[in-house]
Amino acid sequence: MLELIFLGTGGGRFATITQKRRTGGIRIISEQNKINIHVDPGPGALIYSLEMGLDPQKIRAIFVSHSHLDHANDAEPLIEAMSEGTTKKRGVLVAASSVLKGNEVCENSISRYHQAMPEKVIEATVGKSFKLDELNVTVCRAVHSDPDTVGFRFESKEFGSFAYIPDSEYFTDASKFYSGLRLLILSVLRPSGQPWEGHMTTDDAIRIIEETRPEMALITHFGMQMILRGPEREAELIEKKTGVLTKAAFDGMRVLIGKEIVISGKKEGKARTLSSFLG
Question: Which of 174, 197, 257, 261 allows an S-S link to 2, with CB 3.0 to 4.6 Å?
């Protein structure tokens, strides 16, 4: 069984600075800790990991989709944890080119000092594929203000396939990268009718889900306008329009992927499931 833990479901400037929704990213864990990945560790990822009983020293890989604070802020402290306080070259860092080297609009968000700590660093460029523990990973396209932004697709014989789209507007070949999934996680910053270049609205999510047809869709990474509108309401709209089961993620939510996809956890309080005992 594979478990996805949402250490945060907020995104954008105002959700980040107010923490109306946490911004800790997503942890992916399997039994016996064979898989332990942290995806897009934004502000609070370290603290929220500790609060939820997820030992950051057990992380085996860190994925960073692009060089913006709400996705990359806590990557460096998590790298230090993964490398056992910098005492061992341990773990894998998978990061967009902008995160590692910067580009014309973004400076690098992980220092060269921290890039030297993992055992391996993989520059994530669209189309690259590699094996990480029990998962086959493919780097997928995204269209955002950071031109090096990428999404990630994960596949295994045991769990099937799931993918994560970070900040991105709609793009016409989304089905090339994100079709045939059991679970698609989309970063839907804004509600229907509130477009913002380089970011996803409910309307964009509807188009992508219609074209990719996952077994289930989860929306996350909500900005203040989405929070005020109500993510659950927008998820219902997506499901009504697409016919695909769609849920709005919440802080502390846990998704178990086995023969079925099961959502657990409560919007308030803590749930004790697989990851609680892995530590």
Answer: 257
Sheet architecture: strand order including 261-264: 120-124, 92-96, 61-64, 36-39, 23-30, 2-8, 254-257, 261-264
pLDDT in tens, 35-72: 999 999 999 999 999 999 999 999 999 999 999 999 99
For residues 176 and 29, what is the distance between their CA atoms, to the nearest angstrom? Answer: 27
pLDDT in tens, 132-172: 999 999 999 999 999 999 999 999 999 999 999 999 999 99
Give the domain range for residue 232. Answer: 2-278
- Cα separation values, 184 from 175, 216, 255, Å: 12, 6, 12
pLDDT at residue 276, as a whole number: 38
Q: What is the CATH number of the domain that holds 256?
A: 3.60.15.10
The pair of structure tokens assigned to 239 is: 């499901």
Q: How many folded domains does the chain comprise?
A: 1
